[in-house]
Amino acid sequence: MTQHNSELRMSFFDHLDELRVRVIRCLWVFTAGFLVLYFFSEQILGILRGPLFLVLPPTQQKLYFTSLFENFLTHLKIAGYSALFVFSPYYFYQLWCFIAPGLYSKERRLALPFICAATTFFLGGACFAYFIVFPVGFKFFVTYGGPTDIPLLTIDSYYTTCLKLLLLFGLAFEIPVIIVFLGYIGLVDSALLRKHRRVAIIGITVIAALFAPPDAVSMLMLGGPLVLLYECSIWVVQWLEPRRRETRQVEDPLEGRSRP
After folding, report:
1. Rounded Cα distance, 51 and 49, in Å
2. How far, rounded to the nearest angstrom, does the alpha carbon of residue 157 sit from its chain's CA centroid?
3. Which residues have CB under 8 Å from 53's CB, separation 6+?
4. Is 82 exposed, middle or buried (0-12, 13-18, 19+ CB in 10 A)?
5. DSSP H helical ranges for 63-154
6. What span, in angstroms and rounded, lies between the C-alpha atoms of 169 and 133?
7. Using an 8 Å Cβ cutoff, are 119 and 88 in contact?
8. Residue pLDDT, tens place only, 53-111
9. Which terminal CB of the chain, N or C, has fewer other CB atoms within 10 Å?
């Protein structure tokens, strides 16, 4: 549905107020999800320690806590991270609602594809970490060293590492969604993406070095898929360019845009 430009014109403070409303709604959903998922935190902990216990001998399949509150706080942390993943479609929906007023009317119809793609890649990145990175990485680190080197892992250190990696891979896999979205609205094109391919690869390498665990295996497991996803994004943006031009020809360039 086409709306008059004056109806979509928002001041800077209107944008801030809109952002505040969206953030508050996300916080309410996060809080509700946190309270519900806390009661399933023990089951989630069991799922997370599965890849580690697969590479540990039966006699060493234990995690230790070194402070009185460590185990309890870990359950809280698990509930919080789980609320981020489980209710991620709602968070992406609120993000779309925030940016939608600045799009053309035809572009605003992409709400469902955007939410589905963002959720799929976010959860897909976490699944890639759990099913691919965890088994390979844990086996490498647990068996590294001599036969007298026995791992003594604490609850906080292990689960914190798992949660950070799941979130890192989930966010990193959002890169192609962002690139394709920017390509669809005309902020980037396939030629520009190809021109700056080397810069993008260097940036991905820096991201992998900064946020992945400090070893070559983890950095390659993060950087490799991101480079592949970047290349796939170029082809998707190129495929979308004719459709974007049709959208611009059909609609008035000023129609549906938010102006400062």
Report:
1. 6
2. 22
3. 61
4. buried
5. 70-86, 88-99, 111-128, 134-142
6. 10
7. yes
8. 998 888 888 899 888 899 999 999 999 999 999 999 999 999 999 888 877 777 778 88
9. N
Share of the chain above pLDDT 70, in %: 86
CB burial readout 145-181, b (16+ within 10 A) else e: eeeeeeeebbbbebbebbbebbbbbbebbbbbbebbb
* Interhelix angle 111-128/155-172, nearest 10 degrees: 140
Query: What's the CA gap between 230 and 173, in Å, rounded?
Result: 10
What is the distance between the alpha carbons of residues 36 and 82, in angstroms, rounded to a whole number? 10
pTM of the model: 0.84
191 contacts 241 by C-beta, under 8 angstroms: no
Are 192 and 141 spatial neighbours (Cβ–Cβ below 8 Å)?
no
